[in-house]
Amino acid sequence: MAKFIIRRTLYMIPILLGIALITFLLFNMAGGDPAAQAAGKYATAERIEEIRTELGLDGPLYVQFGRHVQQMLTFDFGRSWATKQTISSMITSGIDASMSLTVPTLIITQIITIALALFIAFFRGTLFDKTSLIVCLALLSFSSLVYILYGQFSLAFNAGLFPISGWDPSWVGRWQYLILPILIGVMLSLGGSVLFYRTVFIDQLHQDYVRTARSKGLSDNVIMYKHILRNALIPIITVVVAQMPFVIVGSLLIEAFFQIPGLGGMTYQAINNADFPVIKAMTMIGAILYLVFQLVADILYAVVDPRVQVR
Amino acid sequence: MYSSWRIFFHASIISAICLIFAGCTNSCSQKVSDTDSTLNVVLSANVKGLDPIYANDTYSNAVISNISETLLEYHYLKRPLELQPLLAESMPEVSDNGLTHTFKIKKGVKFHNNEAFENGIGRELKAQDFVYSWKRLADPRLQADGFWVFDGKIKGLNEWRDKVSAGEADYDTPIEGIEATDDYTLVIKLSKPYYQLHYVLAMGFTSPVAKEVVDKHGKEYLNHPVGTGPYKFANWVRNNKIELVKNENWHGQTYPTEGATGDEEAGLLADAGKTLPFNDKITFHEVTEAQPRWLNFMKGNYEYMGIPKDNFDSAIAEGDLTPEMKSKGVQLFKTPEPDVTYVAFNMKDPILGKNENLRKAIALAYDTKTSIEKFYNGQALPAQSPIPPSIDAYDPNFENPFKKFDVSKAKEFLEKAGFPEGKGAPVIEYSALTSSTARQMAEFFKQNMAAIGLQVKIDSVSWPQLQKKIKEAQAQMWGIAWLADYPDAENFLQLLYGPNKTPGPNGANFANSKFDELYKKAAILPPGPERTQLYQEMRDIFVNEMPWVPGVHRLGYYLRHGWIKNFKMHSIINNHFKYLRVDAKKRAELKAKL
Questions:
Q1: Predicted model pTM
Q2: Apex CA A166: angle with CA A160 and CA A171, to 5°?
């Protein structure tokens, strides 16, 4: 196991270098000119050159790339070009808000969707199952904006059940602002997740071990919970782990609409401002999280299913 | 055994219901205080930082203008705008040649208390603080956004900047053009006449900061601002809200006793002579999306706001408030914005730059009236030239002959341009931002041009990409706008001054020797009829060449609740918060009904 982890960690290095190269190339090809951008509306050629030097954009590309890699590896991204704030402080202040939204959303979504999917799978083929399928498909078809706009308008503004938007940095105060965004976050993934898990569970229901269990006279409940759920853990882990990077980097639209000062909104603004240091930091964090959680998933597969061996 | 997964399922449903009730108990019972006079202001973008030298956006400026102050400020009520002293004791003494400006600094003005000062007590503001702060503005290592206000205009400042770059000078090196001759006298010497100096001395960039505080926080000063203003920085939840509290040691000011025509009738002089500021606290809410801004305003959580495009029809009908809005006690404030929108032609472009008739054909084919209906809810004035209303040299009776929507005349000019019915005309690229409104505007432009046989290709770009294209003179034609930094036509005409060509503000790369000559001549003239005459001659050259298709001058529409008093807006005045008064009792009463 240790050998596996070390090897997989080492594999990450070339992948991260590749990501560093791609972000660097994309930025240089598709981004604007940050020096001209920083020089503002009264730019002069002289000022632009000064800023280019100050930002370290005047050297040859390979030198710039070297610095880019160095920053990415040392996690020293300096200050944002657009806001002049330190990127580390921007990330620390954003990560807390983002995770306060995404972690409960993920947990609640998983609990509800797994429970619902098991329930629906249990009644497979019935009218209830078919109706549920249609409802799930309908839920899936709405754009996320519909949930946000409608939720905010009807539940917060009209019904007055929640504050319209806002944030309180204290742990106790923030929840009143988080409940509606979390509910909407859960609704957003409900349809898709229930459909997926239902398929997974139904697939398991057709397995030989279910037939064996039934022939032993086990009750449906025991079969569903003890056998099917456990066997379906691998796809569940895959889904949950795939979502983990998003849990940390936040949810752009929900954050923007509910005034939650998270990382999603910060990244979006950075893209709009060609704020390369922030984009670089967020890309790198996203990439590392993705790779780390893939590794975690592989390890978890082995934990939940003894047939899987990590080598 | 009762099935665990059922328990699981039920538990999750119950928790969801509990969550809803938890939300309700917290938010439904919010009581409105009738003594809290907090002014709640909504900003439609996030604030970047609170260091005056980087305050190049409206939002950061709005906050900074309460914390820091400038030598001069605009009179809150008078129109056209008029400057008055703020940190200066009086208006400056100006030498006959216009090159030396001597300011007397108000005595007894104190910085906010801060631990950076001895015993934590804010010390008195001195003329030397301006010298230090303006050196900071010019320091090449800080790359201030506001250096342009002094760039090339103050004796010795650019030389100092170059020496600092070379490591040959520091903050102790004197600058000939900025000198504190004693603690309360500041002498500014210009390298050439610069009649806009007084205007820029009312801009946030030139606010004094205390060296002790900057030394303590270094680059982090932008999160720890200390000034002399009516409000002190209290707290910032980044990307969410900023809170300021009243500065009890403020040097003080009273509400103006005179205003513009109609101000008295509008109740704007009811508080005349009363001590400012009126409110104990200001909270700036940073809300980037229009819907939460609008819904919060409608619940009375913000005192006033500009109307989001999508909510315009629900608030305004035929230029006035809808009855529903009136019944809620909402009031409307309209003001012409000192701005111009335009479609610029790149004059370096071999097709558009060389063909005056083609540019005129395009201008004639553009249906400004319909565009105002479609994109500005009918609330904008067609622009005849770059100079907007409320700025000197604006003539309401002036009509640009190429701004009359006339398809047949446009076709005539297209023929003169060498492309009868558009035959042989190359496809022109129009760069537009990716936002839905910008795209719709570009599509509308494309349709207008198709009507005379011109083909337009839309190039969708991000703001950084558009800026890059313009600054590298790679764009052919693009839509853009300019909002005045100060109320002088020069601020618009400099967009067409030859030496300001790309990467400078003259993105169109317009170069006309006569225009440039007049510009230089006007630059050394004080405001007055002679200068206005020159500005109008420059406008005529513009019309003759049409390097842009002028679009519109926008009208600002603001909604405010009945409990906010003394409300008068102008985009150039950014320190208006101290004049606003929240009637807390009325707010409690009216808000309960919303």
A1: 0.90
A2: 105
